[in-house]
Design goal:
Blueprint lengths: L1 H33 L11 E2 L2 E2 L11 E2 L8 E6 L9 E7 L2 E4 L6 H4 L9 E5 L12 E10 L15 E5 L23 E6 L16 E8 L1 H7 L10 E4 L16 E6 L2 E11 L16 E5 L4 H7 L10 E5 L7 E7 L3 E8 L5 E7 L7 E5 L4 E8 L8 E11 L14 E6 L2
Antiparallel strand pairs: 1-2, 3-11, 4-5, 4-7, 5-6, 6-9, 7-8, 8-9, 10-11, 10-13, 11-12, 12-15, 13-14, 14-15, 16-17, 16-23, 17-18, 18-19, 20-21, 21-22, 22-23
């Protein structure tokens, strides 16, 4: 009988865990509205002030994106290039940090003279490229961090990833990143690329004013390597996308931009536009047959990102947690987080209590205000986050706890306490 009860409790927790996971998208939408948020590279002969004799880095066949659909998209431009010939894309993954390609910011190390933050700017949430002064959030650059093993002279452009730190925080919605080894992207999975790259597969192709989006099919690394045999080495730290017949692709000035998939009720960035196209004379620079786009695989570089960018990363706190506090015995905390929101359910094993908490997590130390619906209980607390993966414990500091009917002493969560949670599964 005891074994049966224990298994029933486990099943009950798992069922609640599933409910929280499938309903977080609605909660995220509510939180986003409260926060006032919404749900490549260079010219033929030059690479951010550095000559590029190898090839043009790498939207063809796409369509105009609706304004506000991709709030985390970032335009990276140069003050000396008002027309945007040397612009790149990027994605906002933290209020102070933009993720982009290393080759987009080579001028910081190889330029003559080297570029500085004053030579660049970022516009988060831009829709029309000719409105960089009036649309979105135009922010100045503090510093640029390329991957330490990046080498633009390597013909296959390994480690093509960089972080751009902003001087002021952006208020736009963040793009979630997948946890390392926590996302399985099978071939034929549909992904979306976003950017302002040229829309004709030729060196002097026209550039769009309106942000473009294109749906691409994920291709296995084996197929991609066969296509580029003798030209490029496709590593596990890369991911390829496109179609055998071509016609749809990212291209010049899309570099550094995101490749995203919709998974677990949220957009997650799986790739960074890096390069593509055959070297043979006369071959299209983009969108050619058997010439897939090659992207930096984001999940392979989570450790590099986490070294500089504060967590949370999407899914870092997903799971069922328990506390050692006697007052919280037989109480389960079910957590799920995106890059900027967190959903928590608190329940007891007697089945009488069900508490749904919603909170904003745009900056890791921000206060979360949440309502526990069944008891009309209001709880405010701050999470104390860790930067090491995988995360097996979390501490919640209770700032305030009260109900409409009674004093704070009757709250489930003790005021002023640090509640240490241990991950159950």
């Amino acid at each position: 009988m005891k074994i049966f009860i224990m298994k029933f409790k486990q099943l009950f927790v798992v069922c609640v865990f599933c409910v929280v996971f499938t309903s977080t998208s609605l909660w995220s939408q509510e939180i986003s509205s409260e926060l006032n948020t919404s749900p490549n590279s260079l010219s033929d002969g030059e690479l951010n002030g550095v000559k590029n004799s190898q090839r043009i880095p790498r939207i063809i066949g796409g369509k105009d994106a609706q304004a506000g659909v991709w709030p985390w998209i970032t335009y990276i431009g140069y003050t000396s290039d008002p027309e945007g010939y040397s612009s790149c894309g990027g994605s906002l993954i933290h209020p102070y940090w933009v993720l982009t390609a290393a080759h987009c910011v080579d001028g910081f190390n190889l330029g003559d003279p080297p570029l500085t933050g004053d030579d660049m700017f970022a516009v988060v949430g831009l829709h029309k490229r000719n409105r960089t002064d009036t649309e979105g959030e135009r922010l100045t650059i503090n510093r640029v961090i390329q991957h330490p093993q990046w080498n633009r002279l390597n013909p296959s452009w390994y480690y093509d990833i960089a972080l751009v730190q902003l001087k002021e925080p952006s208020t736009q919605q963040l793009l979630s990143l997948p946890l390392q080894d926590n996302i399985d992207i099978k071939p034929n999975t549909l992904a979306t690329a976003v950017g302002w790259g040229i829309i004709e597969p030729k060196a002097d192709g026209a550039s769009p004013d309106v942000l473009q989006e294109v749906e691409l099919s994920i291709v296995s690394n084996e197929t991609c390597q066969t296509t580029y045999e003798g030209e490029y080495k496709i590593l596990d730290s890369m991911i390829c996308a496109g179609f055998e017949e071509g016609k749809k692709d990212t291209c010049t000035n899309d570099s550094g931009g995101p490749l995203v998939i919709f998974k677990e009720s949220q957009w997650q960035q799986v790739g960074i536009v890096s390069f593509g196209g055959h070297k043979t004379e006369g071959a299209p620079i983009c969108a050619g047959p058997d010439a897939y786009g090659v992207y930096t695989r984001v999940s392979a570089f989570i450790d590099f990102i986490a070294k500089y960018v504060p967590l949370p990363i999407a899914g870092a706190y997903d799971g069922v947690w328990t506390s050692t506090l006697p007052t919280l015995a037989n109480t389960y905390f079910v957590l799920r987080n995106t890059a900027d929101t967190i959903a928590i359910a608190i329940l007891t094993d007697n089945g009488k209590n069900w508490y749904a908490l919603l909170g904003a997590m745009g900056i890791p130390t921000s206060t979360m205000t949440s309502v526990i619906s069944t008891e009309n209980m209001m709880v405010e607390f701050k999470p104390i986050l860790t930067e090491s993966l995988p995360i097996t414990e979390i501490t919640l500091t209770v700032i305030n706890c009260r109900t409409k009917q009674s004093s704070a002493d009757t709250c489930l969560l003790p005021m002023g306490k640090n509640i240490k949670l241990n991950k159950m599964f």
